[in-house]
Amino acid sequence: MLVVMQSNASEEQVREVCKRIEQLGLRAHPIPGSLRTAIGITGNNGALDLGVLASLPGVAECIPVSKPYKLVSRDAKAEDTIVRISAPAGEVAFGGGMIGLVGGPCAIESRDQAFRIANVVAKTGTRLFRGGAYKPRTSPYSFQGLGEDGLKILSAVREQFGLGIVTEAVDHDSLDLVERHADVIQIGARNMQNFSLLKRAGRSKKPVLLKRGISATLDEFLMAAEYILSEGNYQVILCERGVRTFSDYSRNTLDISIVPAVQRRSHLPIVVDPSHAAGVRHKVLALSRAAIAVGADGLLIEVHHDPERALSDGMQSILPDEFQKLTEEAKQIAEVIHKKTN
Ligand code: PEP
Ligand code: MN
Question: Which ligand minimizes its atom distance to the CA of 312?
Answer without folding.
Answer: 2
